[in-house]
Amino acid sequence: xxxKVKLKDIKPYITCSLCEGYLIHASTITECLxxxxxxxxxxxxxxxxxxxECDKILHxxxxxxxxxxxxxxxxxxxxxxxxxxxxxxYLNCTHLVVNTEKAITFYRKHxxxxxxxxxxxxxxxDKIPEKYIIDNTIDLELKPYNIENIDLLCRPYIRxxxxxTIKLVKKFVSLKLLKDIKRYDEIEIFxxxxxxxxxxxxxxxxxxxxTNKKAPLLLFYNICRIS
Length: 227
Fold this sequence. Notes:
Shape: elongated
Number of domains: 2
Number of helices: 8
CATH class of the largest domain: Alpha Beta
Distance between the termini: 63 Å
Keywords: Metal-binding, Nucleus, Zinc, Zinc-finger
Largest sheet: 5 strands, mixed
CATH architecture of the largest domain: 2-Layer Sandwich
Protein name: Polycomb group RING finger protein 1
Structural class: alpha+beta
Strand order of the largest sheet: 7-6-10-8-9
Number of strands: 10
Strand content: 15-25%
Subcellular location: Nucleus
Pfam family, one: RAWUL
CATH superfamily of the largest domain: Zinc/RING finger domain, C3HC4 (zinc finger)
Radius of gyration: 22 Å
GO molecular function: zinc ion binding
């Protein structure tokens, strides 16, 4: 017989620590994997550069670049709390948590006054700069440029944000193969035998150099020892 999991046991994992409500438009910080409501984290990062949960510094100038819309987590929450998706309010401690747009429709349909906190979250959602939220990913395959002289990565297939730069790919390979992220300058990344610049994004490479869109974006790496 399968053991049943109580909602109260997983509540901390599906609750936003900023508003203390169930996650709405769940968004996850890729640097530390803490999740928040989309409107809450965008408003918080307008004045801060750190994660509100663990205090990790995210980005010196634009911390929103490491925030990713987490559709998988949100779908899971909707399965656990189906009425949340329908727009029916849940009472969570002292905080009223709802799907904002559907909740407003719900209250208007029943000639009820819209609670102030719902109006507040609705305004925040409208102001979110969508272009800064990472919701596009690219499947990437990394292979050695010369298989005879270079080690294979234990996990050559990874899923990355589309805005990820080649510099970060170099750091990843350097950490895995050289065991030192600071030696990333010794790593060269190729696509179709062409060395890629460190500021190129995966999105740009995928659009300009990747012909088979059904397959992962294939990049090659080489280790160039610096004396």
